[in-house]
Write a structure and sequence with these properties.
With about 240 residues, the chain is an alpha+beta fold. The protein is built from 4 helices and 13 strands. The structure holds zinc ion.
Length: about 240
């Protein structure tokens, strides 16, 4: 039952956002990030001490193990929930981490990036959201730097729903593998969801190497979202980031 609930919650989060909280929180103004914790008691974690995103700096070398990824072409729909654009996945794409299997549920985009590296922001960041059978989350972040057109985005971008609260079936299933840099070195830290309810206990894995995105591709997603969708970086509060 618990597995079912966690799975349903993730797959349906976009629907929930549309139905109930779509208008309640924003990225600026009266319901912006500084107010999230006060908008509803459900958002108490937004005022927590282990929040995301962060500025990745002062990392400690810990000899992290290579990521064990087995991704399939199982992305089958893309939604625009007014906060982001998100590709939802059918089961079968996995990340092995800490002796546990996490399944890829969805990936979505932030423009500009949410996490930073040594104070540097990027024009775009993708978050690949995975959950284990108990609903614990692991997110892989990949930064996009301006450069050559991104081939993975080239297939997806024309299919992004332009209207908030709408979705499109993908013409062909997509794998998340094509979004990753060639080298899989990564930073790791404990953090949270970067949107309300800002739940903590999220395993964050941010790729060290960025991939490229063209100026036109960034402009295209900015035109669809109509606003920046990055939460400001949060204090580390004693957390150590390892690599
Ligand atoms: Zn995100």
């Amino acid at each position: 039952m618990k597995k079912h609930l966690a799975f349903a919650a993730l797959m349906a989060c976009s629907v929930t956002a549309m139905a109930s909280d779509g208008a309640k929180w924003t990225y600026a103004g009266e319901s912006g990030p500084e107010q999230w914790a006060k908008l509803t008691p459900d958002n108490f974690a937004c005022a927590g001490k282990n929040q995301s995103p962060v500025d990745i700096k002062g990392t400690v070398h810990a000899g992290l193990k290579p990521l064990k990824l087995a991704y399939k072409a199982a992305g089958n729909e893309v939604i625009n929930n007014g906060h982001t654009v998100q590709v939802n996945f059918a089961p079968g794409s996995t990340l092995q981490l800490d002796g546990t299997e996490f399944e890829l549920k969805q990936y979505h985009f932030h423009a500009p990036s949410e996490n930073q590296v040594n104070g540097q922001s990027y024009p775009l960041e993708v978050h690949l959201v995975h959950a284990d059978k108990d609903g614990n989350l692991a997110v892989i972040g990949v930064m996009f730097k301006q450069g050559a057109e991104n081939q993975a985005l080239k297939a997806l971008w024309p299919q992004l729903p332009k209207e908030a609260n709408s979705k499109n079936a993908l013409t062909a299933p997509l794998s998340a593998a094509s979004l990753l840099p060639t080298k899989h070195g990564y930073f790791r830290f404990s953090g949270s969801l970067t949107t309300p309810p800002c739940s903590e206990g999220v395993r964050w894995l941010v790729m060290k190497n960025p991939v490229t995105v063209s100026k036109e591709q960034v402009a295209a997603i900015e035109g669809i979202l109509h606003h920046a969708n990055n939460r400001p970086v949060q204090a580390l509060n004693g957390r150590v980031i390892v690599d």
